[in-house]
Specification:
alpha+beta, 4-stranded antiparallel β-sheet, 16 helices, 4 strands, 47% helix, NDK-like_dom_sf, NDK-like_dom, Nucleoside diphosphate kinase-like domain-containing protein
């Protein structure tokens, strides 16, 4: 039997997604059938009398668990002030394997299985979603401008002026932040991370239009008190190795095994082998140390020969 390629049509959905939400027609078509988007868009458009103006001036930045542990939130917000972004609302949420996969549903076809599995290791930790507003008019939506400021996840493709460069991100997986690409993604991601009550609470804060910096700083302080500090810049593979050998100094045989293990770690493509080896020997490492080790030197490049669901985001040449 010959399998025909599946195509989407307007007959498959009951809603019309406005062009101002996305410049990509195929994206609008898919999201029109996406439960998270549909629920969130219905709530948003009913709450705001002029949803086009509101959503076009909004941007969303998510501070991932490593940003909380690495104390990267406040310096990021200060960095974004110079480009005219100020906070309107914020709320934390608990990560899960389902949230990770839904946020990246339309990119997961490009991602290797190990990347998703490794992210599961930091499930049940918190992320912080902050809704920002751009204080001036622009020909592009605020969300696209923020994505341009953020910079690529791949350190080799970034410029010094990018936010991720300022944050000192060198690990291609632990990149501290996520931003919604377009207005349509803001709506969908609010639908993924929050239920109706929490979304409505955020909408009310957005409607006020006030600078949310003071309550946001209090929220950040609370998160910092909950999660221990981890210095991602200082905890290189070499420093982790030194720490292990000091803690295991009384066991020369184990130190010899650790030395050999660390020498070959980059050659082991199976991260589970690394994690199992550490756990079986009760090596005294924090969870973040273990994640640093198993992601060390990995590129996490997209799978070869796989077509994107959507085209690459358009290039917003406004800043650099």
């Amino acid at each position: 039997m010959i399998m025909k390629a599946f195509t989407y049509s307007h007959e498959m959905t009951s809603i019309n997604v406005p062009e101002f939400l996305s410049y990509l027609p195929e994206k609008r078509m898919l999201y029109a059938m996406d439960t998270y988007f549909r629920e969130s868009w219905e709530d948003f458009s009913q709450h705001f009398g002029d949803p086009k103006t509101i959503v076009s001036n909004l941007a969303v930045i998510v501070f991932k668990p490593e940003a909380i542990a690495g104390r990267k939130i406040l310096e990021s917000l200060d960095f974004l002030k110079q480009y005219g972004f100020y906070p309107l609302a914020a709320k934390s949420y608990i990560n899960s394997r389902h949230i990770y996969r839904e946020l990246w549903r339309y990119q997961c076809n490009l991602v290797k299985r190990e990347q998703l599995d490794i992210m599961d290791l930091i499930s049940d930790t918190k992320s912080l979603l902050v809704v920002l507003r751009l204080d001036h008019n622009s020909e592009f939506p605020a969300s696209e401008i923020l994505s341009a400021i953020k910079g690529p996840a791949n350190p080799t493709l970034r410029k010094p002026e990018h936010l991720r460069s300022m944050l000192g991100q060198t690990n291609k997986l632990l990149n501290f932040i996520h931003t919604s690409d377009e207005p349509i993604d803001i709506i969908r991601e609010l639908g993924i991370c929050f239920d109706y009550q929490d979304r409505n609470s955020l909408f009310k804060e957005i409607e006020k239009g006030n600078n949310y910096e003071t309550p946001l700083r209090e929220l950040v302080s609370s998160l910092y008190e909950t999660y221990s500090f981890y210095d991602f810049s200082a905890r290189s593979i070499f420093s982790i190795y030194n720490d292990i050998t000091k803690k295991c100094a009384s066991d020369p045989i184990l130190i010899s095994e650790i030395t050999e293990f660390m020498r070959n770690i980059k050659n082991d493509t199976n991260w589970r082998n690394i994690l199992n080896w550490l756990n079986e020997r009760n090596i005294p490492l924090s969870d973040w140390d273990k994640i640093q080790l198993i992601t060390n030197g990995k590129d996490f490049l997209p799978l070869d020969g796989i077509k994107r669901v959507f085209p690459v985001q358009r290039d917003v040449q406004l800043l650099f």
